[in-house]
Amino acid sequence: MDSKAFFKLNYGVYIVSSSADGKDGGCVINTMAQVTSSPARLSIALNKNNHTLKLIETSGTFSGVVLSDDVEMDLIKRFGFQSGRDVNKYDGLPQGRDGLHNPYPTQGVCARFACRVISTLDVGTHVIIIGEVEEAEVMDEKTPGLTYSDYHVKKNGATPPNAPSYQENAGRTVGYRCSVCGYILESDTLPDDFICPVCGKDASYFVKL
């Protein structure tokens, strides 16, 4: 099986959030899609290790935002390469709150949705969640949504290990992988003073492929 075939699938980049027991959380995903238009329903897929999944399971609701093509990488790093178990990702961040009491970032976003969970499906490493849309709003008329391809090409983005599209080594045979965020340095050697360009960890966090 040629795993590179999966790279031909098109994705967007989104942030999904929820609030439960007085705690807010969210994560970056590339798997949010419209399932039906009437009633309006979206599907998302979250890794079972994601703290955001636990919040959604408790609250029964979630917000989803479409990231803009010009979104700052700092927002993606904040939500995609650290765990809500360790940090409050919404601390100090410009944000809104939908009618279901879920937070959502307001900068670098071109559309938002508020959804109530109606069904879930366990698919092994991930859980697929179907949500009925109760709110939808365009927040930026002019800026297109960020595609997953442009995230990699234009922004030099890495794929977190918890992402559905993550592939161990992705066909690479030489290099070093950051054990925190999954960034891969394709090189025969790893400089002692190397710093991960995605999550900022030093060379001690890298493992040889």
TrEMBL record:
<keyword id="KW-0560">Oxidoreductase</keyword>
<protein>
    <submittedName>
        <fullName>Flavin reductase</fullName>
    </submittedName>
</protein>
<dbReference type="InterPro" id="IPR012349">
    <property type="entry name" value="Split_barrel_FMN-bd"/>
</dbReference>
<dbReference type="InterPro" id="IPR002563">
    <property type="entry name" value="Flavin_Rdtase-like_dom"/>
</dbReference>
<dbReference type="Pfam" id="PF01613">
    <property type="entry name" value="Flavin_Reduct"/>
</dbReference>
<dbReference type="Pfam" id="PF21349">
    <property type="entry name" value="RUBY_RBDX"/>
</dbReference>
<dbReference type="InterPro" id="IPR048574">
    <property type="entry name" value="RUBY_RBDX"/>
</dbReference>
<feature type="domain" description="Rubredoxin-like">
    <location>
        <begin position="173"/>
        <end position="209"/>
    </location>
</feature>
<dbReference type="InterPro" id="IPR050268">
    <property type="entry name" value="NADH-dep_flavin_reductase"/>
</dbReference>
<dbReference type="InterPro" id="IPR024934">
    <property type="entry name" value="Rubredoxin-like_dom"/>
</dbReference>
